[in-house]
Amino acid sequence: MVGDKQKYAGMTVNERLVVSGFMAVFDKAIERQDYEKASEILEAVELDDVNIEAILAQVLTR
User: Fold this and answer.
1) Using one digit for the tens of pLDDT, what is the confidence trace for 33-60?
2) Count of helix runs (H) and strand runs (E) in the chain
3) Is 51 among the domain residues?
4) Fewer Cβ within 10 Å of end Cβ, the chain: N or C?
5) Is 21 left (phi over 0), alpha (psi -120 to 50) or beta?
6) Nearest CA to 43 among 10, 17, 11, 15?
7) Count of domains for the chain
């Protein structure tokens, strides 16, 4: 049995967002430059802080 923490193992970020149903919400957060919301969503799809920071640094202009 796969543990909850491995639900998204082997998936890309986009795959995680689609499977979780967060893609549209994440896209809106990016459009609004909402760092906190985008970060929460990425955390919900089991990304670690280092990866979240790297992704948001590329897609958001702070």
Assistant:
1) 999 999 999 999 999 999 999 999 999 8
2) 4, 0
3) yes
4) N
5) left
6) 17
7) 1
Task: Extract the tokens encoding 26.
Answer: 């994440």
Kindly report the CA angle at 9 between 47 and 1, in degrees rounded to 5? 125
Return the structure tokens found at 39.
Answer: 């970060």
Mean pLDDT, the chain, integer: 91
| Spatial distance between the Cα atoms of 59 and 8, rounded to a whole number of angstroms | 21
- Determine the structural domain holding residue 27 and report its residue range: 12-59
In a domain, 45, yes or no: yes
- Number of CB atoms found within 10 A of residue 43's CB: 13
Question: Is residue 3 included in any domain, yes or no?
Answer: no
The rounded distance, in Å, linking the Cα atoms of 54 and 58 is: 7
Is 7 contained in some domain?
no
